[in-house]
Amino acid sequence: MIGQIAASLVALAFIGGGLLEAADRLRLQRRARRARGVFVAREDALHPGGPAVRTRSARFRFTTESGQVVERVSALTSFPGPKPGRSVDVVYDPARPQATAERVRVHQALLLMGPLLAVAGVILLIVIWTGR
Fold first, then answer.
1. 84 near 41, Cβ under 8 Å?
2. pLDDT tens digits, the chain, 132 residues: what are they?
3. Which of 27, 46, 72, 128 is 20 to 30 A distant from 34 in Cα terms?
4. What is the spatial distance between Cα 46 and Cα 90, in angstroms, rounded to a whole number?
5. What are the angstrom distances between the C-alpha of 73 and each of 79, 82, 114?
6. What string of DSSP letters covers 56-120?
7. Distance CA 126, CA 131 (A)
8. What pairs with residue 43 in β-bridges?
9. Is the pTM value of this prediction over 0.70?
10. How many other C-beta atoms are found inside a 10 Å radius of the C-beta of residue 27?
């Protein structure tokens, strides 16, 4: 019974996290502006696999419609990461460009990941409580 409760809490965290991510991404989608930016650097990122596993986050820079220059690190990591100097399409909320800017493809992937995470949580809850 304790195991079921603990597993249910994990499943509820999946559901809650997925729904929050989906809501944030849909809100951004509704207000989004696009801009052309450029990759300016690759930054080493922490990886759950430990220090022997290397990943890099892309730092990109773009200018908003209002002329504000924004520099931000992408939420997605990869190795070796995009080359500095390459152009990139960016999506951002004009009210909060520093906090919301992301590469268009990463934004689209995260837009899908939120609902998928929530569905995985629901399936996990069903399995936990029905024993199937």
1. yes
2. 888 889 999 999 999 999 998 998 888 888 889 999 999 987 776 656 556 656 677 899 999 999 999 999 988 777 666 788 999 999 999 999 999 999 998 888 888 999 999 999 999 999 998 876
3. 46
4. 24
5. 15, 12, 20
6. EEEEEEEE-TTS-EEEEEEEEEESS-PPTT-EEEEEE-TTSHHHH-EEHHHHHHHHHHHHHHHHH
7. 8
8. 57
9. yes
10. 12
Distance CA 112, CA 96 (A): 22
Q: Is the dihedral of CA 17, 21, 24, 26 positive or negative?
A: negative
What is the distance between the alpha carbons of residues 108 and 51, in angstroms, rounded to a whole number? 29
Taking CA atoms, 71 is separated from 90, 96, 114, 125, in Å, by: 11, 13, 25, 40
* 102-103, strands of its sheet edge to edge: 69-78, 55-63, 33-45, 87-92, 102-103
